[in-house]
Write a sequence for this structure.
C-alpha cells in the first residue's frame, strides 16, 4: 500500500502534468488563431469612440494577453477555439493612482473583456464580440512587434517540465540584432550565436560561451537558459514582454524589455 506522502506526491505530479499539458494545448490552439504577435489600440467600446489621446492597448502573446488600460498595465490569459471563439481569464493589473475618468474607462474596459466570446479580424482591425455577436470592443492595429532588442530573462524552462523564475541575485540577458546574430549573458558567462526568424518561427544557435566556472545558482541557471534558448522555435512579444516556446507550446523563456 502506498504511504500518504507517496500518494500526495503522485497526485501532485499528475496535477502539474495536467496543467502543463493544458497550457501547451492552449498555446498550440492560440498559435493558429492569427492573434499572437499582434498589438492593438482601442477604437470603440460598446459602439462609442474612445476619446482622442487615450491609448488603451491589447497585445497577444502565445498564451497571454496584456496591455495598458489607459493608466494601469494589465495581463490575462486567453484561449481560442473553433469559429473564432475567444475568452479571457482573470485580469491582473498594476495599481497606479488614476483620475476619475481613467478609473471609469479602465473599469468598463475590463468588464467588456469579460464579456468577449468571439473575435473577428477584418479590414486590418480587430473586433471582439459577446455571445449575442454584438461588438463590444473594436481595435486598430498598433505598430508591429519585433524580436530585436535587449531582453532580461524573468523565467526559464528547467528541463524538468517546469518553468522557474530567475534565481535571486542572478541576471540572464539576450539581445537579438537585425543582422541575425545574438549576444547574451547567462549569469556567469557571456555567449553569442546566430538566429533566424520567419514569421513567428524562430531558430536559435548553436550558441557558444566563455568558459568561466560558475557556482550555483548561476551555473545551473546558465545551463538551463542557454538550453531553453536553443529549444525555442516560436516567439511572441506583447506589451514589452517576450515569450519563447517550443513546437509543443511549452514555454522556454520569458523575458521583459531591458529598455524602459
Amino acid at each position: 500500500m502506498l504511504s500518504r506522502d507517496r500518494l500526495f506526491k503522485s497526485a501532485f505530479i499528475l496535477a502539474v502534468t495536467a496543467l502543463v499539458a493544458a497550457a501547451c494545448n492552449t498555446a498550440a490552439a492560440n498559435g493558429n488563431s492569427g492573434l499572437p504577435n499582434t498589438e492593438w489600440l482601442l477604437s470603440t467600446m460598446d459602439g462609442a469612440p474612445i476619446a482622442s489621446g487615450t491609448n488603451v492597448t491589447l497585445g497577444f502573446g502565445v498564451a497571454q494577453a496584456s496591455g495598458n488600460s489607459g493608466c494601469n498595465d494589465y495581463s490575462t490569459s486567453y484561449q481560442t477555439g473553433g469559429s473564432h471563439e475567444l475568452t479571457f481569464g482573470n485580469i491582473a493589473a498594476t495599481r497606479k493612482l488614476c483620475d476619475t475618468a481613467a478609473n471609469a474607462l479602465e473599469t468598463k474596459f475590463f468588464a467588456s473583456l469579460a464579456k468577449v466570446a468571439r473575435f473577428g479580424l477584418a479590414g486590418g482591425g480587430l473586433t471582439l464580440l459577446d455571445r449575442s455577436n454584438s461588438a463590444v470592443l473594436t481595435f486598430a492595429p498598433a505598430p508591429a512587434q519585433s524580436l530585436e532588442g535587449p531582453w532580461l530573462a524573468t523565467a526559464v524552462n528547467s528541463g524538468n517540465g517546469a518553468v522557474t523564475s530567475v534565481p535571486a541575485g542572478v541576471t540572464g540577458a539576450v539581445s537579438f540584432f537585425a543582422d541575425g546574430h545574438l549576444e547574451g549573458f547567462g549569469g556567469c558567462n557571456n555567449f553569442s550565436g546566430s538566429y533566424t526568424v520567419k514569421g513567428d518561427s524562430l531558430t536559435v544557435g548553436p550558441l557558444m560561451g566563455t568558459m568561466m566556472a560558475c557556482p550555483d545558482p548561476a551555473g545551473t541557471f546558465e545551463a538551463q537558459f542557454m538550453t531553453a534558448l536553443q529549444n525555442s522555435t516560436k516567439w511572441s512579444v506583447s506589451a514589452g514582454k517576450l515569450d519563447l516556446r517550443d513546437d509543443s507550446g511549452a514555454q522556454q523563456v520569458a523575458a521583459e524589455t531591458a529598455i524602459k
